[in-house]
Design brief:
about 375 residues; mainly alpha; 14 helices
């Protein structure tokens, strides 16, 4: 029996599937037909594409992998694959049934079959890796590199690249949400007496100056590094982690711009303040590799608060969202807006994690 990050990751991924399957959550109504009607439709349906086939399989494969991995790590050796397959299939079935009440979504028995196939494929890959000893090697790697209570930080670090999939006004600028939240609350309460209670600002938000943009980028690349330092053993391993984090962050940001605007625009986000901020952020992270974990947690808390304050004093760019809506592959890889929510929520989840870590009475240095 092992504590594993696969369980929270599987639950988070299942929640993302529910979000993607039922988005945009409006127009609910009974359409005067049996909810089971899609089960008996012909396969394949009249209108389908290979893109639909591949995305339905690929969308559920990580769920099957994570569920089977979590079950294998908690002792369900023989039943991990069938239980993961059954769970993924039932989730897909529930989503297809629910879609019958959403006029903008179309339930499909072909989607159900493909989702089940994707779940099975992912579960079989997890079982194969277990049989080949890859899971055991990961366990030994985790014991050498990370402190015992590392699951929360590992889950956050695993979600960080996905949070970057929706471009922000500032590269690595996660958590810029207060302007949109204020607009949404104003719209919701516009015809109610509660509108007077809202702390709406009258000041016009101005774009970040080059210096403040540089600082925001510096903090954006430093924050995941400090989060890793809270759980990684040894200065050398921290240095390797910093380089990997920088490569992943740059690669995912370039991929996002490539999918959104085309290959010729993949590197247009690298302005002069961005390049300087990235370089300084990596340099600062390298200087902090010898700092004790508890001090890293305190620095992470300060960096998160300063970063969020900087970003939310600047207006969000509507240009990104308008352009991304026209790119089909971009919409898929961002899971129909889920990546945008991850980008908003991730730093606040990290903030909660680090506050809990700093508040612990006993923690390793």
């Amino acid at each position: 029996m092992h504590k594993t990050s696969a369980w929270p990751l599987a639950l988070i991924y299942a929640a993302l599937i529910v979000f993607a399957s039922l988005f945009p959550f409006d127009g609910w109504r009974t359409q005067g037909m049996d909810p089971r009607v899609f089960l008996f439709a012909r396969i394949p349906p009249p209108y389908w594409t290979w893109f639909d086939v591949n995305t339905n399989i690929a969308g559920y494969a990580p769920l099957g992998f994570l569920l089977a991995l979590a079950l294998l790590r908690t002792g369900w050796t023989r039943s991990a694959v069938p239980v993961a397959f059954l769970a993924g299939t039932l989730l897909s079935l529930a989503m297809e049934f629910t879609q019958i009440y959403l006029p903008r979504r179309v339930p499909s028995n072909m989607d159900l079959v493909l989702n089940a196939a994707g779940t099975l494929l992912g579960a079989l890959v997890a079982a194969l890796l277990e049989k080949l000893g890859a899971i055991s090697r990961w366990s030994r790697f985790r014991e050498r590199w990370f402190v015992p209570q590392a699951r929360g930080a590992l889950v956050l670090l695993a979600m960080w690249p996905f949070a970057l999939l929706f471009p922000a006004s500032v590269p690595f600028g996660l958590g810029q949400m207060w302007e949109r939240l204020e607009m949404a609350l104003t719209e919701w309460f516009s015809d109610t007496p509660f509108i007077e209670w809202l702390p709406v600002t009258d000041d016009v938000l101005e774009p970040l100056s080059p210096g403040r943009e540089l600082l925001a980028v510096l903090l954006g690349i430093l924050i995941p590094c400090l989060l890793g330092y809270c759980i990684i053993r040894g200065a050398g391993r921290r240095a390797i982690f910093t380089l990997v984090t920088a490569v992943v962050g740059v690669g995912v940001t370039a991929l996002t711009f490539l999918l959104s605007y085309g290959p010729s625009h993949a590197w247009e986000w690298q302005s002069v303040p961005t390049r300087i901020g990235m370089g300084l952020g990596i340099a600062v992270a390298m200087l902090l590799v010898i700092v004790p974990r508890r001090v890293c947690a305190a620095l992470l808390l300060l960096a998160l608060m300063l970063h969020l304050n900087l970003l939310n004093q600047a207006p969000a760019s509507a240009y990104f969202a308008q352009m991304l809506q026209a790119w089909e592959q971009g919409r898929f890889i961002r899971f129909y807006g889920v990546a945008q929510w991850l980008g908003w929520i991730w730093p606040y989840a990290a903030l909660v994690y680090v506050v809990m870590r700093v508040s612990r009475r006993s923690d390793e240095a």
